[in-house]
Design a protein that fits this description.
The structure holds 3 protein chains of 3 kinds.
Chain A (H helix, E strand, L loop, with lengths): L1 H27 L6 H6 L5 H10 L6 H14 L13 H36 L4 H15 L2 H15 L21 H34 L3 H8 L4 H32 L1 H7 L4 H11 L2 H29 L1 H5 L2
Helix pairs in contact in A: 1-4, 1-13, 5-6, 5-8, 5-10, 5-12, 6-8, 7-8, 7-11, 8-10, 9-10, 10-12, 10-13, 11-12, 12-13
Chain B lengths: L2 E14 L2 E14 L3 E5 L6 H8 L8 E9 L2 E2 L5 H7 L4 E4 L13 H12 L4 H14 L5 H5 L8 H13 L5 E5 L7 H18 L2 E6 L2 H7 L2 E6 L2 E7 H6 L4 H9 L39 H5 L10 E2 L5 H13 L1
Parallel strand pairs in B: 3-8, 3-9, 6-7, 7-8
Antiparallel strand pairs in B: 1-2, 1-4, 4-5, 9-10, 10-11
Chain C lengths: L3 E14 L9 E14 L3 E5 L6 H8 L7 E6 L2 E2 L5 H9 L1 E4 L13 H11 L5 H14 L16 H13 L5 E5 L7 H18 L2 E6 L2 H7 L2 E6 L2 E7 H6 L4 H9 L5 H6 L30 H5 L5 E2 L5 E2 L8
Classes of the chains: A mainly alpha, B alpha/beta, C alpha/beta.
Chain lengths: ~325, ~325, ~325
């Protein structure tokens, strides 16, 4: 197990290095574009451009530029925006990260729990009306675009029905810090959580159902029945545990992507100033240092959460530990 | 002598678009306590389905089981699921062919055995665990305490089959159903497992139904043998009688097809022409008639009944002509 | 030996497993450990052993499906150990393989006619018409009928598919066929039909076989000589009847005694040697004789010195410090 973890961590560091090089090259070595112009932003003065050139060592060889950039990002963390003058970029990302993390983690808990319940129910009653109803519902969940659901949710909870007993507890849009008020945090996030989770509930429930039905054909399921287990025990103890592997794989990818800014639409519609929101703003203003910082940090999140998931995976399924 | 299990006229059919297909077609046999019954047949003979039907373990929504299966006097066909479930793994346990896939990969061996013990007894988790270790010891697994803590894929095929057997024995079953328990194993490991099965009746008082395609395995293990062909029993006798004086032409064919390790090496093996009939195109008379070298007009239309008391055979070749025909068949 | 068709000299095949990043996780597995033997023209050598003993790996090395780590393979006087490209293709024409699972080795989307004709087309053997006649003759030789030519593999039973596989292997009139467990997936009665077919082909066409199997009865039926493998080593090699009637190596003895006999009268009197435990892992073979931890006759020398494969008085070879015979 320790070896598995160590191997995974080494792998993770290698991937991160690769990504940082790639991102760096895209921004600094694309032919036909002067990186200084781009870093300085739109309509920058020649003085600013000259300053940028000096600060980022743009007249020096590429490897040196890479080291300077990484130093600014990870060690001195003093990369500044030239669009919003003087604004330090890295602290902004750090401020945004907990918001995104809160949003995505909460949604993840909801979608995992619901997906397991729905997937298991559908598999247990496969081809019956329960199964069909649940699968149609999950298909609807998958098909509804998240910005539409979010807008609808806002319309209902903040607009028409805000003053009825049903939604009067919903706070105005925005984020409440957990340390300031845990209940406020929860209230502010519950609607965004559900909104973000809907798509994934549908997706994961369908994947889990398929995996469960496949697992139920395995020989060891027959052994489990031959032991005298009830059908429910067979499904929940023996089949579910083996089928969860496929869900865990998906989860690693989806969670990383969302934490790294993929929840952009939900964040924008609910006014949550998370990593996605930050990227969205930076893109609007073509704030290159900000884009670079969010991209790099996003990839760190994706890769780290993937590594964590792989380690969880090995804990979950001993087969993974043996595989080399 | 009262029988432990009486199977009468068992039929296992599958609903298909082209109608009902009878995979097991009227099988009757019984087994006494502490007896080892071997059921021999090739793939598609219905031998596995016969045994799976006893515990209603055929996992197919289109299966139809008819006839009678009486275990210690209780009818099992049409029985309530709860009653069957208490029998499964308790009084009737099962061992499957492929030990590689028969155990759940995400639980340790010990946990899987303990799980079965706790279904059928009141033992505590701890007591069930230590019984699991004792069982692993009893089936000859080296270092049973460590083996109990391992996952199935960490053991070799032979060790896994021992673990499966330990699990099957965990609640002292009166009847053990073994479906090709050694087919996936190497011969030296097969020898170990067969030795273990032979010992079960002394150590655990279990009767065993041993399903196999290998005549050698039954000859060395079983007290009685039933030979199945195309969903029917064609011959049934004590092991000694069956091998000393086989009655059915299909049995002759099987014996002739087996390359022997000693005796004179025959330049060619005696074979059976052709293939078994598809189950939905079984001939109206004797199912073996299209491949039988001794077929007579009477075989074509009427299905020969299983006759005899101790040595039963479903063949109309009269006893006096049998020896000549057999010599002829085995010489070919 | 000058009349040898195939001559294998100290053939070794090693695998490395483990992570590419961490050297500590690496293990070297000697699947085949300096194995030598020859096969004469028209001779059938049976290669027996239990799973993991390296017999299939050896078969794949001989047909060059796997690269050899060291040692040499000589076929009809030509060293084929490191052949590549056109030379290897030419070699393969005379060196065919039959597999265990006939279904997996036949392209499911092609008709039998095309499957059998393919090697002939690839090697430019004759005009289109010659090839057609040739295919028809081959299909008949393996006991199928001409109406089978236009069917697909899935329309056949296991035995018939194996016949198609044999017809394909015969197409280029090979001198040597490596058959890897060709009958072990088949039912007893079908297995007998295929064994008879192979026996006939061997006699009529003078093809030499390296016949890999775990079933000693099957090997006895078809092989002139037998090589027994254990943990990557040949531990006994000699005439089939000689070895099966009176094995010299304790492992061969145990292997033979483990085969169930379809005769209760004899089974009762048989001395049965039940080996304890499983074969050791080839990743971690024992010192000395690879069989000594399970051997009933082992002495101190077996624990320290690995016995060489040496010829006994009766002409067979065995790798044992305390042979039972000869």
């Amino acid at each position: 197990m320790a070896a598995t973890i160590l191997r995974r961590l080494i792998h993770m560091i290698a991937v991160l290095f690769g990504i940082s090089v790639l991102v760096f090259l895209i921004f600094f070595a694309t032919p036909g574009a002067n990186p200084a112009d781009r870093i300085a932003g739109k309509n920058a003065s020649p003085q600013t451009i000259a300053r940028v050139e000096k600060e980022f060592g743009l007249n020096r060889p590429l490897p040196v530029q890479y080291v300077i950039m990484m130093k600014k990002l990870f060690i001195s963390r003093n990369l500044t925006s030239f669009v919003n003058l003087g604004e330090k970029v890295v602290p902004q990302v750090f401020k945004a990260a907990p918001i995104t993390l809160s949003l995505v983690s909460g949604a993840a808990v909801i979608w995992i729990v619901f997906a397991i319940v729905i997937g298991a129910l559908a598999a247990a009653f496969r081809n019956g009306w329960v199964d069909r109803t649940l699968m149609v519902l999950s298909l609807i969940g998958i098909s509804m675009p998240v910005f539409w659901v979010a807008t609808m949710a806002n319309l209902i909870t903040q607009g028409v029905w805000h003053h009825t007993w049903l939604f009067s507890w919903v706070p105005p849009l925005g984020y409440v810090d957990f340390t300031a008020s845990p209940l406020g945090w929860f209230k502010a996030l519950i609607i965004p959580w559900i909104t973000l989770a809907i798509l994934y509930i549908g997706l994961y429930a369908r994947v889990l159902r398929a995996a469960l039905i496949e697992t139920m054909q395995e020989d060891f399921i027959r052994t489990a029945r031959a032991k005298g287990l009830t059908e429910r025990q067979v499904l929940l103890r023996h089949a579910l545990r083996c089928s969860l592997v496929s869900v865990v794989t998906l989860f690693g990818l989806d969670f990383g992507v969302l934490v790294g800014g993929g929840a952009l639409l939900t964040e924008v519609v609910f006014g949550l100033q998370g990593v996605g929101y930050l990227t969205y703003q930076a893109l609007e203003t073509l704030d290159l240092p900000m884009i670079m910082a969010t991209v790099i940090y996003a990839s760190v999140f994706v890769v780290v959460s993937n590594a964590v998931v792989d380690i969880v995976y090995a804990a979950f399924d001993p087969r993974m530990r043996l595989r080399r | 002598m009262s029988n432990l299990l009486d199977v009468t006229d068992l039929a296992v059919s599958f609903r298909t678009r082209s109608g009902l297909i009878r995979a097991v077609d009227g099988v009757s046999f019984s087994i006494a306590e502490r007896e080892i019954l071997g059921i021999v047949g090739e793939s598609g003979s219905g031998k596995s389905l016969t045994v799976l039907a006893i515990l209603d373990l055929i996992n197919d929504p289109n299966v139809v089981i008819a006839g009678s299966i009486r275990f210690k006097g209780t009818e099992l066909i049409g029985q309530k699921p709860g009653v069957l479930r208490r029998l499964r793994g308790g009084a009737i346990a099962m061992i499957f062919q492929d030990p590689m896939t028969a155990l759940t990969p995400v639980f340790t061996i010990g946990a899987q055995i303990a799980e079965q013990i706790r279904i059928h007894t009141e033992l505590s988790r701890h007591a069930a665990r230590s019984r699991a270790v004792d069982l692993l010891d009893a089936v000859g697994l080296p270092d049973p305490a460590r083996a109990a803590a391992r996952y199935p894929q960490e053991l070799s095929g032979g060790q896994r089959q021992r673990a499966v057997i330990a699990m099957a024995l965990s609640c002292n079953p009166a009847l053990l159903l073994a479906d090709e328990p050694t087919t996936a194993l190497d011969v030296t490991v097969q020898a170990q497992i067969l030795e273990l099965i032979r010992k079960l009746r002394d150590d655990f008082n279990s009767a065993v139904i041993l399903i196999t395609h290998n005549l050698g395995v039954v000859a060395e293990t079983a007290d009685r043998v039933a030979v199945m062909y195309s969903g029917r029993i064609v011959e049934s006798a004590s092991t000694t009688a069956l091998f000393a004086d086989p009655h059915h032409p299909y049995t002759w064919g099987l014996l002739g097809s087996m390359p022997a390790l000693d005796g004179i090496r025959r330049p060619r093996l005696a074979t059976i022409q052709g293939l078994p009939p598809a189950l939905n195109r079984r001939p109206p008379g004797c199912a073996f008639s299209p491949r039988c070298a001794f077929v007579r007009p009477a075989c074509i239309n009427a299905r020969p009944p299983l006759t005899g008391t101790e040595h039963q055979v479903a063949c109309i070749i009269p006893a006096p002509e049998r020896a000549t025909a057999r010599t002829q068949a085995l010489a070919a | 030996m000058s009349d040898a068709l195939l001559s294998i000299d100290k053939l070794t095949k090693t695998y490395t497993t483990g992570s590419a990043l961490l050297a500590s996780g690496k293990t070297m597995i000697r699947a085949v450990d300096a194995v030598s033997f020859t096969i004469a023209n028209g001779e059938t050598l049976g290669l027996v052993g239990e799973s993991g003993c390296g017999k299939s790996t050896l078969g794949r090395c001989v047909t060059r499906l796997l690269d050899v780590s060291s040692g040499s393979i000589t076929l009809a006087g030509t060293d084929i150990t490191r052949q590549r490209g056109a030379a290897l293709r030419e070699t393969r024409a005379g060196l065919q393989m039959i597999f265990q699972d006939p279904y997996a080795s036949l392209n499911p989307r092609r008709r039998v006619r095309d499957i059998v004709a393919e090697p002939l087309i690839v090697h430019h053997r004759g005009t289109r018409r010659d090839i057609r006649d040739n295919v028809a003759a081959l299909i008949q030789a393996v006991g199928l009928r001409s109406e089978h030519l236009d069917r697909f593999p899935h329309e056949f039973s296991g035995g018939q598919r194996q016949r198609v596989g044999i017809a394909r292997a015969l197409a280029l009139s090979p001198k040597l066929i490596v058959a890897d467990e060709p009958v072990s997936a088949l039912d007893v009665s079908v297995q007998a039909q295929i064994i008879n077919l192979l026996t006939d082909l061997k006699r009529e066409r003078g093809i030499a076989f390296l016949f890999i199997a775990h079933d000693l009865g099957v090997v006895r039926q078809i092989a002139d000589r037998v090589a027994v493998m254990y943990l990557g080593n040949i531990i006994e090699l000699g005439a089939t009847e000689q070895i099966l009637a009176a094995p010299a190596h304790p492992y061969t003895e145990a292997l033979i005694s483990a085969v169930p006999v379809a005769d209760p009268a004899r089974a009762a009197h048989k001395t049965r040697i039940v080996l304890a435990g499983d074969p050791p892992s080839p990743a971690n073979p024992p010192r000395g004789c690879p069989f000594h931890p399970r051997c009933g006759y082992a002495t101190d020398i077996c624990k320290t010195t690995k016995p060489a494969l040496e010829v006994l008085n009766d002409g067979r070879f065995t790798a044992c410090h305390h042979p039972r015979q000869g």
